[in-house]
Amino acid sequence: MKILMVCLGNICRSPLAHGIMEHLAQQKGLNWEIDSAGTGNWHIGEQPDRRSIAVARKYGLDISGQSCRQFETADFERFDQILVMDYSNLNDVKALARNEEEHNKINLFLKDTIVPDPYHDDDQFDPVYQMIEKRCKELIVEFASTI
Ligand code: 4NP
To answer: Quick one: DSSP state of residue 123?
Structure first.
């Protein structure tokens, strides 16, 4: 299974989803490929936001080695699932899909609701971590049963 986590900046939400999913897959001995990207280009090459690094560290995960990159159309070929954090990400990535197969790979990470952008609120990083971790645990079970 190859999964790409997508948000706007690729410095707050998707790096957490990337790190958590990678860790859970490794724990379960699943040889999955997990990556993340942003629809925007402001932070290319940067580490995740220091607040995402800190909250991940608090829960025993090191995401400081990740490097921000922008989503590109080649990602549709590289990944089986492209999981986006909010409706704006959904619209932006859908706009780049070139056929039905590519459209079908794009889903909201939380299925029918969004992961709110914590960028402007330090207090949101912990709840965002919790909601991402909970969903990653569900996704591991969901996807593991389809392969
Ligand atoms: P993210 O949060 O999409 O969860 O990485 C953001 C980070 C940076 C910006 C917006 C959202 N920004 O506008 O720079």
So the answer is: G
Question: Which residue ranges have their beta carbon within 6 Å of ligand 1?
Answer: 7-13, 42, 117, 119
Q: In this structure, which residue's CA is closest to atom 10 in ligand 1?
A: 9
Residue owning the nearest CA to atom 11 of ligand 1:
9
pLDDT tens for the 147 residues of the chain, in order: 999 999 999 999 999 999 999 999 999 999 999 999 999 999 999 999 999 999 999 999 999 999 999 999 999 999 999 999 999 999 999 999 999 999 999 999 999 999 999 999 999 999 999 999 999 999 999 998 875
Distance CA 5, CA 64 (A): 16
The class of domain 2-144 in CATH terms is alpha beta
User: How many degrees, rounded to 5, is the angle at CA 67 between CA 117 and CA 73?
Assistant: 80
Contact by Cβ (8 Å): 116, 122: no
- Report the catalytic residues: 7, 13, 117
What letter would DSSP give residue 107? E
Ligand 1 centroid to 10 CA: how many Å? 7
